[in-house]
Design brief:
The complex is a heterodimer of chains A (612) and B (339). Chain A is α/β, with parallel strands linked by helices and 612 residues long. Chain A is 36% helix and 21% strand. Chain A is globular and about 85 Å long. In chain B, strand 5, helix 6 and strand 6 form a beta-alpha-beta unit. In chain B, the strands form 2 sheets. Chain B has an 8-stranded mixed sheet with strand order 2-1-3-4-6-5-11-7, sandwiched between helices. In chain B, strands 8-9-10 form a 3-stranded antiparallel sheet. Chain B has 11 helices and 12 strands. Helix content of chain B is 29%, strand content 19%. Chain B is globular, with a radius of gyration of 23 Å. By secondary structure, chain B is of the alpha/beta class. Chain B starts with 29 loop residues before the first helix and ends with a strand. Chain B has a domain of 213 residues: Rossmann fold (3-Layer(aba) Sandwich). The chains are: A alpha/beta (612), B alpha/beta (339). The interface between A and B is large, with 73 and 58 residues.
Chain lengths: 612, 339
Amino acid sequence: MQSNHSYKNIVVKFAGDSGDGVQLTGTQFAETNALFGNDIATFPDFPAEIRAPIGTLPGVSGYQIHFSSESVLTPGDLYDVLVALNAAALKVNIKLLKPNGIIIVNKDGFDSRNLRLAGISENDHPLTNGSLDNFTVYEADITQLTKKAVSEFNLGNKESERCKNMFVLGMVYWLFDREIQNTIQFLEKRFSKNEDLMKANIKALQAGYFFSETSELFSSQYHIDAAETPAGLYRSINGNQATALGLLAASVKSNIPLFLGSYPITPASDILHELSKHKGYDVMTFQAEDEIAGVCAAIGASYAGHIGITTSSGPGIALKTEAIGLATMLELPLVICNIQRGGPSTGLPTKTEQSDLLQALYGRNGECPLVVIAASSPSDCYEMAYMAVKISLEHTVPVMFLSDGYIANGAQPWKIKQLDELPDIQSHFITQVKEGEVYRPYQREENLSRFHAIPGSEGMTHRIGGLEKENITGNISYEGANHELMVKIRAQKVANVAHQIPLIEFDQGDENSDCLVIGWGSTYGSIFTAVTELKSEGLNVAQLHLKYINPLPLNFHEKLKPFKHVFVAELNNGQLIKLIREQFLIDALGINKIQGQPFSLLEIKETIKQHI
Amino acid sequence: MELTEIQSPFFTSKDLETDQEVRWCPGCGDYAILKSVQNVLPELGVPKHQFVFISGIGCSSRFPYYMDTYGMHSIHGRAAAIATGVKLANPELSVWMITGDGDSLSIGGNHLIHTLRRNPDINILLFNNEIYGLTKGQFSPTSHVGQITKSSPMGVADSPFNPLALALGAGSTFVARTMDRDLKHQQLMYKRAYFHKGTSLVEIYQNCNVFNDGAFDVFTAKGSKPETTLFLTHGQPLVFAEGTKGIMLQGLTPVIVELDKVNKDDLWIHDEKDLTKAHLLSQFFDKEHFPRPFGVIYAIENKPVFNEVMKQQIVDSKIENKQLAFSKLLKSSSSWEIK
């Protein structure tokens, strides 16, 4: 970097101990840049332990943000700037810093204790052993400076030290020529009940900013212009917020109360937290005794005429399996949100993975197809969650909505979509039978969905259950031919959803391209950016991205037919690829990563280059 | 006992029969329970489309198919969670849960205790036959130690649950016991359960004449019944054996006394609202020489009702114009305009 130069893209990584407030620093920096008008993509990366041992390598928490004057779809492979609050944070993150990149270090985090905790010998001090010679290193006694700055307030030693994340944020604001006003407003609100803490944090923020300005620590400031974005009203949003708001939007639009039955689990709990704040919209959130009770209560609520929803992650979905089969048999609406994480078993709770696709498609006893849809970005969770409710209510089928830790916690600017921009929803709940007709619970309309008479409706008492039922009457039936008919009907109901979902179009390239990359869900941004780069390097690559996986878009086969080389990129050991090979007899090649982290562009590009 | 004044019935017990053939084994205790429930419902002053019966899996759980109300035969052990969802979504409904000892005390034990703890206004009828009937005769969590069953040819090795003690421990607000052979007593208990605000748990001793025949004969047979059963009435002394014996409390120790040797005023007077006494009564379980209590052991209404609290939270934050509020909510976190 050169002095006072303008840049199009910058990637900053904040890293520190998991108690250092790194996530807050990152989200504030992201929000301020978004407000300034940059496009942003963020990637929070934190340990599964709430407070892992202080100062150790497993205790390092990070927040990566990519901000730009152009469109950005990924948090970036490598960082331009690394902010390291202690020795462990430097050691864990240095390998992804660009050559000649900037390092801002808190010298107080490199004392002998911190070095020991990070497993570094004092004879091999990273700030003096020459290992950072290829980088530009800025050192400051951030802890000491912060403590001095807030000494006038009535805070304990620990509380004073904790303000250092605001000090460092102030420093970085100055470095990128950003205003601190938005964060001041945030701190005023956040600490409105503790004036000393509020003032101290604001003071630390200002002190960090002025320290950078007056100390001449940095040789220059860096400028990143605002991005050219279509006109409209924007906000910053992460995937879990967008999921909660999308579900709520469907409830408000359809005027049907929302019922969430859920059990806390990483990384899905934020949806429960968000919806529990909105009870005034006729939202009931039931924190159940376990995952099974969560989904079962949602089924009960759906039976009583509400939008039944359950949210979880892979291990919880495994527990809900039998109940999802019941909902399929009852032909009731039910939305199951799986915010995927690394598996199997407890796996990697805070890390991302797309390894529950086959579970979503096949993971139940008996012939039990579900509608399966997947969001492609944090903001896309809004519309896809909305569509999950719409499809479920209109087709009386359970819908599995897939997101994952990467987009659930990642944030991006979102052009707000109001209710009038969303399609109408027609529910199949009824309270009256047509005159002269007798209510039959499994009587079907054209798309094979049934009408559900909700309990309390006069003249329509009926019984349903998990035993196989006779078509139309809903009576128990063990008759073989009827069972086969019902299995086919339940499959056809799911297949019929294909007529409602959009056709798929190439995101880049066309049928004349030399090869095709297919992805699904959260990998959209990484694949898109990688394909764009490959094209600029002269390779003729096309991209198709699936958001509707069961059923697939009606024209999907037609789109992939012309290609000799088909790649399927996914963060698992090869799941969508099984479906594509099996259904279309295509010799597709997998691009896979199973490290709890999103794809880097390089990883996608290298595999494609190797094969064409 | 005084119950809320009953309005004229909207329907008769006959109206509750469905077109489905009842498929329990001939002689099963379930028939008597079905009959009793069908007799009680018309007397509750509620139209039949307001009733919902939710069951799990097991012989007893076929019950909803034979009741012309709303009903769901769900999956093993989960009826309590489903019933909770129904009641939360629509508190106007009269929600009844039908379950058995395997369904609610084994696979669904977790849901049962948490439901009792939360106290939604639902009625739980627990058919206890001390055996797995539908799977043809394995021991259940209420089978007795040493019982020979298909899966315990050398005798059951594990100790049984004491269902009523479990319910009291979980924070129940209404705990009662009745038996399939006594239609009148059953009906009284079901009425009491219906009128109780909060979760009511009624344990019903139910004979499985195929896999565990006679399990409760000692309580139901004419010869032994007077000595082995204790029928409770609120405010009345604990008397059994055709009025010849009573129970006294010496401190917290119950003692059986001959009535002709004590003053009747010194007997233990049944108080449904006394938790300590309810705990003691629930322990008349494997206590030698003590009769088994039947009736309402415990009933209080001073604990918050879960569905009411949940509803109140919605009412308290009620938004009049949801569309407008939602539009603002979308914008509420710091948004910015690009022109």
